[in-house]
Write a structure and sequence with these properties.
Largest sheet: 5 strands, mixed, barrel
Order of helices and strands: EEEEEEEEE
Shape: globular
Distance between the termini: 25 Å
Number of helices: 0
Radius of gyration: 13 Å
Structural class: mainly beta
């Protein structure tokens, strides 16, 4: 949907799908790049931080962030495993422009 109905400039939103096989590229420190696909479209992702233990190629993931050009710049990445999201929280944009925390439990 990101490719067919792009978000507004600077809009924070979630993106999810499968991490493309062979796409994980480690940078310096905690920088990492990878691609995520919903099987219809593929989006490059850039993230700086510690990835969840279950994050990997061919695995499901969900991330929060913004588009910068054609790249999704994530501020948070969650791994999905066995059709259950790992416990944690997501920041979800609200109509008033503020972000609210939502619990994600397995």
């Amino acid at each position: 949907q990101v490719m067919t109905d792009p978000p507004r400039a600077g809009e924070t939103f979630r993106i999810g799908g499968l991490v493309v096989e062979g796409s994980i590229k480690r940078g310096q420190g905690t920088e990492v790049g990878f691609a995520v696909t919903d099987t219809n479209a593929t989006v490059p992702v850039r993230y700086t931080g510690v990835l969840p233990d279950l994050f990997g190629e061919g695995q499901g993931m969900i991330a929060l962030g913004k588009m910068e050009g054609d790249t999704f710049v994530a501020t948070e990445v969650l791994a999905k495993h066995d059709e259950k999201y790992m416990q944690g929280t997501l920041l979800v944009p609200q109509p008033n422009g503020k972000l609210s925390e939502v619990s994600v439990e397995d």
